[in-house]
C-alpha cells in the first residue's frame, strides 16, 4: 500500500516539476479552441451570460424570491458548468492523450494538470461574468464572500483528483464516457442549480440532501446568498474531497504503468 | 560512459478485458506480440529474454517482421514500458523520435512548436532559447518556421522533428521507422548528424524495415522475432570481424 502511494506521489511530484509543460499545453488548448474567432475566449463569457440570462428569464419566480434569483442562478451555473466540463472531459482524457502516453515519458499527472488548468482558465471567464451579475443583481459585497472564495479554492483543489478518478474510469470502462455524459445532462435537473430548495418534501428534498453536487454548489453560494458560513456543506465537501484524493492516489499509484496497455 | 545493457529483459502484459457493453470479440486491448493463455487470463509476451550490450559509438539496427517487438524494445529503452522481467541499465542522456507529430500542434508555428517539443523533452527555457536558431537552420524551414505547423509537408515536419530531437546532443538516440520517410537529401543530412553523434561516443538505436537505411547507418544488427532475439550481428560494411548473419 505504501509503495502504491509512493508511486502516486512520485508521479505527481514529477508532473509538478514539469509545470511549464502543462501550463504551455493548456494555454495552447484554449488558444486553439478560439483561434480565428473575433471574440476569442470571450465567447466563454458570452456563453455563460447567455445561459444565466435564459434561466433567469424563464424560471425567475414571482414575489419576494425574485430578488436574489439572478445571483442564485449565476453561482449555481458557474459551479455546475465547471464540474460538468471537468467530469465529461476527464472520462476520455487518457484516450485523447494516447499519442503522448505512447511516445513520451511524461508522468500521467501532467495530462491531469493540463485539463485542470484548461478548465480553470475557462471558468475564469465565467467568474468574471458571475461577479458582474452579482454586482448588478443586488447582494452587496460583505466579508462572508470570502467563504465563497474559499469554496472555489476547495473545488479547484479537488479538481485534479476528480480528473484522475474519471480518467481511470474512462480507460477501464470506455462506455462510461457516454454514461457520465448522459448522467450529467440529467443531473442538472436533480441538482439545485436553478431550482430553489425551501424545505419542501418530495423528490427535491432527496435531490438536495443526497446529491453530492449540492454541497459543492452551496459552499460557494450560501456565503453570498445568506451571508453565513455553511459549516455543514463545507464539512461534507471536505470529506468528499479527501475521499476522492485517496481514490485518485490509489488509482494513480496502482495503475499508472498499466494505462499504456489499456488505452 | 555511455552504455546500454539489457539482461534477460521480458515484457508481459495482461490483456485487460475492458468493461464494455460491446460484443466479446471487441474486448481485446491491443494487437501485436505473442498471446498466451486463454479465456479471461490472456497475456501478451511482447519481449522474452532479450539481452545485449551496447557501448559508446555503437549504432544498432533493430530488424524483424511486423509485431516482432522492435518498437516495444525501443519504448522499453526509453522508459515508456516498464519491463516485467530482467534488468535495463542505461548510462547517458536519451532522446527518442517515435512519432513526428508528438508535441507538435497543428495551429502553432514551427518556432512555438520547438518550444513545446523542448519543454516536453525536459529542456529549460534557456536551453530552448540557445538552440532555437540552430534547430531552425538545420531544419532548412526558412520563413516557414513562422507559419502554422499544419502548413508543413510531411518532409518538413520530419526535418523539424529530427532537428529538435538531435539539437541538445543526446548521448543515446532512439528512432523508429519514420526517418526513412524523408527525401534523399534530408536522409543524407540526418545520417551525417547521426554519424557525428556516434563519433562523439553516443549510441543510436534505429528500428526499420529499410535494408538500405540499416546498412548505411548501423554498425550492428539485432534481429527480433516474436519478442525474442534471433541474432545479433555486425553489419558487413562496418564490421571489424566476421559474425554469423541471420
From TrEMBL, chain A:
Domain called ABC-2 type transporter transmembrane: residue spans: 33-221
Record's subcellular location: Cell membrane
Annotated TM spans: 42-60, 66-83, 123-142, 148-172, 179-197, 231-252
Main location: membrane
Keyword Transmembrane in record: yes
Sorted UniProt keywords: Cell membrane, Membrane, Polysaccharide transport, Sugar transport, Transmembrane, Transmembrane helix, Transport
Protein's UniProt keywords contain Transmembrane: yes
Membrane-protein topology: Multi-pass membrane protein
A family per Pfam: ABC2_membrane
Family listed: Belongs to the ABC-2 integral membrane protein family.
Listed name of the protein: ABC transporter permease
Source organism of the structure: Mesorhizobium abyssinicae
TrEMBL record, chain B:
Organism: Mesorhizobium abyssinicae
Highest taxon, organism lineage: Bacteria
ABC transporter domain sequence ranges: 4-244
Record key words, sorted: ATP-binding, Nucleotide-binding, Transport
CDD domains: ABC_KpsT_Wzt (cd03220)
Pfam families for the chain: ABC_tran (PF00005)
Signal peptide (from-to): none
Molecular functions per Gene Ontology: ATP binding
PROSITE patterns associated with the record: ABC_TRANSPORTER_1 (PS00211), ABC_TRANSPORTER_2 (PS50893)
Membership in a protein family: Belongs to the ABC transporter superfamily.
Listed name of the protein: ABC transporter ATP-binding protein
